[in-house]
């Protein structure tokens, strides 16, 4: 058990990673929160607005690949601090954009920082925690993401659309204040320091070696389908609720409930994954996810009923993500953990691009809110089955080895 100074350093690392995840969650949803004000000021075409929304996700894809790979060579701390400073800087600069094109470029560069930060938050949390607390620590850190999203959703109710630039300023100043503090007080993980960093490190394709290929592919599919579902819901849920008859304020309220439920579930899931209820909690999560989407599609539009279902849906979706993020670092030795987690995050971000576009295509085809939810049900079921298979996948030689 980690004690004394080492224990204090580990707890400080988890707190820093949690705060960084809150900042990241805020920035990830800042574009959606600011969209109404941006549309009113710049009058973008639908294609231009779509490019603006997808720019940060594209940057995040490359940032996760690069950040994970580089951290295996130079360390988690330095890449994480640089990534946090990068997405903070470009979030601030987003507030000074003069047209929709400059907005998209600023979001692309913000995404590079966001992408570089996420796999290192996960790897550092896993490597800093005691052996019997790794799942809980990773899930705790990931829960900061929906908490940040809930803050962004709340701001959408408090800030008028014309003041959209303040959203990006808020989302940028916080990480810029956090980065130098982390540079001084955050410690590199002991596991990384002991793994002989340098040019002899394994190459990126080693994540598929030593029997890891089937496990890695299952992880990628689960991440892709899980993020597709999450980001389709994050982007389209308020619109779907409004189209179904809710006011915009009520629809925004359901989005806050989704994020708050998710954050609470992320915290709970981490504890459950470390105890005797690990198996039942995983099964309940991935059975509840498609069941709640079906229930939401069939439920009458009554405010308290819909808010309750959406709250539970947020619990299920984020608990599922917490499980996947807790699984990802456990499948790779320290030498390739950064690139392994980074690749999984990057594949997931492809899903986060496909999800909103799929929702847009279905809406453009004239599908109602209820029908759209039924349309994605097979995808959600497939993702749940893959994640359940991943949870009980028989380990191959080399999955947990240091080779």
Question: Care to describe what's here?
Answer:
The chain is mainly α. It is globular and about 55 Å long. The protein has one domain (4-189, 197-391): MFS general substrate transporter like domains (Growth Hormone, Chain: A, Up-down Bundle), CATH 1.20.1250. The chain is 81% helix and 0% strand. Helix 5 (134-158) packs antiparallel against helix 9 (248-273). It has helices spanning 4-42, 46-74, 76-94, 100-128, 134-158, 164-185, 190-193, 213-243, 248-273, 278-298, 303-330, 334-364, 369-391.
How do the helices and strands line up, and which of them pair or pack?
Elements lengths: L3 H39 L3 H29 L1 H19 L5 H29 L5 H25 L5 H22 L4 H4 L19 H31 L4 H26 L4 H21 L4 H28 L3 H31 L4 H23 L12
Helix pairs in contact: 1-2, 1-4, 1-5, 1-6, 2-3, 2-4, 2-12, 3-4, 3-6, 4-5, 4-12, 5-9, 5-11, 8-9, 8-11, 8-12, 8-13, 9-11, 10-11, 10-13, 11-12
């Amino acid at each position: 058990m980690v004690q004394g100074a080492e224990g204090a350093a580990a707890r400080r690392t988890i707190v820093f990673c949690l705060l960084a995840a809150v900042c990241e969650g805020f920035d990830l949803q800042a574009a959606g929160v600011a969209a109404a004000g941006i549309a009113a000021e710049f009058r973008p075409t639908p294609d231009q607005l779509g490019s603006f929304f997808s720019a940060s996700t594209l940057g995040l894809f490359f940032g996760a690949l690069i950040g994970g790979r580089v951290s295996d060579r130079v360390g988690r701390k330095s890449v994480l601090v640089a990534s946090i400073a990068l997405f903070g800087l470009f979030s601030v600069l987003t507030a000074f954009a003069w047209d929709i094109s400059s907005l998209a470029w600023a979001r692309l560069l913000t995404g590079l920082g966001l992408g570089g930060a996420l796999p290192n938050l996960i790897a550092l949390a896993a490597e800093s925690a005691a052996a019997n607390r790794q799942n809980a620590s990773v899930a705790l850190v990931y829960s900061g993401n929906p908490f940040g999203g809930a803050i962004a959703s709340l701001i959408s109710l408090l800030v008028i659309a014309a003041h959209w630039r303040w959203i990006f300023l808020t989302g940028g100043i916080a990480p810029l204040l956090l980065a130098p503090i982390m540079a001084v007080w955050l410690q590199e993980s002991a596991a990384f320091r002991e793994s002989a960093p340098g040019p002899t490190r394994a190459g990126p394709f080693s994540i598929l070696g030593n029997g890891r290929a089937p496990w890695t592919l299952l992880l990628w599919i689960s991440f892709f389908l899980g993020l597709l579902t999450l980001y389709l819901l994050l982007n389209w849920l308020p619109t779907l609720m409004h189209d179904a008859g809710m006011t915009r304020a009520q629809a925004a309220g359901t989005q806050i409930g989704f994020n708050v439920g998710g954050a609470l579930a992320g915290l709970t899931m981490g504890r459950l994954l470390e105890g005797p209820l690990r198996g039942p909690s995983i099964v309940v999560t991935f059975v509840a996810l498609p069941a709640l989407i079906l229930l939401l599609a069939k439920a009458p539009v009554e405010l308290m009923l819909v808010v309750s279902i959406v709250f539970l849906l947020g619990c299920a979706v984020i608990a599922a993500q917490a499980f996947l993020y807790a699984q990802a670092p456990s499948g790779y030795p320290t030498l390739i953990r950064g690139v392994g987690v980074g690749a999984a995050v990057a594949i997931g971000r492809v899903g986060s691009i496909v999800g909103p576009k799929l929702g847009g295509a279905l809406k453009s085809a004239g599908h109602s809110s209820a029908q759209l939810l039924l349309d994605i049900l097979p995808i959600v079921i497939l993702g749940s089955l893959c994640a359940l298979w991943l949870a009980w996948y028989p380990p191959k030689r080399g999955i947990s080895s240091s080779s």
